[in-house]
């Protein structure tokens, strides 16, 4: 699939800073995290006194996990607390739910991290195709790149190193904090704008989730939606595509195989 232009009125050629999401946008290390979080939450809710059928609970959990994708993981766990209370249960602390989830997720991905860190796997195996070439192209254009994730910052830093992405982002890597109220993608965007005195389309955001697209559009930036099929590593995830368009994405790409075309479009080169 070529670049899909959603908004043809985008003011291109002025980008100075780019904010990247991490999981599903660059990294595929955590591919399948939803298949860990959703069953864990369904399990918790089935233990409440006033629960619905397993199928109904799964639909409800899928909806709110999806709605909160892109925010720090703790927000999904805070929502789980609310859902337990709604069904007459006594919720555990959100941080406890988060630790249960992270423990189960680690069992799913630990071999991926180990393979990368030992050199048994190459970074390309766990990156959205074309990621390295896209980042290199942005460095050549003098862009200041930031990375922001809802995953805990220590884990993001480890995975950034394992994937060989440190050169592009340096110390501009952000993730979830224990004091979760002190960080959000919207807060980081405001900081980037102030630090670099940016205006509107001088900022671009690239992500596969609703949150980062919406946040970038709220400040007049350019939003690139990445409708990545994380499992197959090719083609478009239509469900992601529809959500990204609704969030306000200016263009949609499945990955960065056509990184040259994407860069030329964003910088209005050759026109």
Structural features, described:
The structure is a single chain. With about 270 residues, the chain is of the alpha/beta class. It folds into two domains: about 5-30 and about 125-265, HAD superfamily/HAD-like (Rossmann fold), CATH 3.40.50.1000; about 35-120, no CATH class. Helix content is about 45%, strand content about 10%. It has eleven helices and seven strands. The chain has helices at about 35-45, 55-65, 75-85, 95-120, 130-140, 155-160, 165-170, 185-195, 210-220, 240-245, 260-265, and strands spanning about 5, 15-20, 145-150, 175, 205, 220-225, 250-255. The chain is globular, with a radius of gyration of 19 Å.
Short account of what is shown:
With 271 residues, the protein is of the alpha/beta class. The chain has eleven helices and seven strands. A seven-stranded mixed sheet has the order 1-7-6-5-2-3-4.
Keywords:
271 residues, alpha/beta, 2 domains, seven-stranded mixed β-sheet, 47% helix, 12% strand, globular
- Please outline the major beta sheet: 7 strands, mixed
**H and E string:** EEHHHHHEHHEHEHEHEH
Low-confidence spans? none
Distance between the termini: 22 Å
Which strand order spans the largest sheet, edge to edge or round the barrel? 1-7-6-5-2-3-4
- Strand proportion: 5-15%
Oligomeric state as shown: single chain
**Mean pLDDT, all residues:** 94
Which CATH architecture of the largest domain is right?
3-Layer(aba) Sandwich
The CATH superfamily name of the largest domain is HAD superfamily/HAD-like
* Principal-axes shape call: globular
Enumerate how many helices there are, as a single number. 11
Number of domains: 2
| Fraction of residues in helix | 40-55%
Query: What's the Cα radius of gyration?
Result: 19 Å
What name does the CATH topology of the largest domain carry?
Answer: Rossmann fold
Let me know the number of strands: 7
Tell me the structural class: alpha/beta
């Amino acid at each position: 699939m070529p670049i899909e232009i959603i908004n043809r009125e985008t003011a291109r050629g002025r980008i100075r800073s780019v904010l990247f999401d991490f999981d599903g946008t660059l990294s595929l290390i955590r591919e399948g995290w939803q298949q860990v979080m959703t069953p864990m939450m369904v399990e918790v809710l089935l233990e409440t006194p006033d629960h619905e059928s397993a199928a109904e609970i799964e639909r409800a959990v899928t909806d709110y996990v999806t709605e909160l994708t892109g925010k720090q993981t703790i927000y999904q766990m805070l929502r789980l607390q609310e859902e337990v209370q709604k069904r007459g249960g006594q919720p555990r602390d959100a941080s406890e739910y988060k630790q249960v989830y992270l423990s189960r997720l680690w069992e799913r991905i630990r071999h991926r991290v180990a393979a990368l860190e030992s050199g048994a796997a190459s970074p390309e195996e766990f990156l959205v195709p074309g990621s390295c070439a896209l980042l290199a192209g942005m460095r050549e254009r003098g862009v200041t790149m930031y990375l922001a994730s809802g995953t805990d910052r220590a884990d993001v830093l480890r995975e950034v190193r394992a994937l060989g992405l440190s050169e592009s982002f340096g110390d501009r890597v952000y993730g979830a904090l224990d004091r979760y109220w002190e960080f959000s993608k919207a807060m980081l965007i405001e900081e980037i704008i102030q630090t670099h005195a940016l205006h509107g389309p001088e900022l671009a955001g690239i992500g596969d989730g609703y949150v980062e697209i919406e946040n970038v559009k709220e400040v007049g930036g350019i939003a690139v939606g990445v409708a990545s099929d994380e499992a197959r590593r090719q083609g478009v995830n239509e469900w992601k595509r529809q959500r990204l368009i609704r969030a306000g994405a200016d263009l949609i790409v499945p990955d960065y195989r056509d990184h040259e075309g994407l860069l030329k479009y964003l910088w209005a080169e050759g026109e």
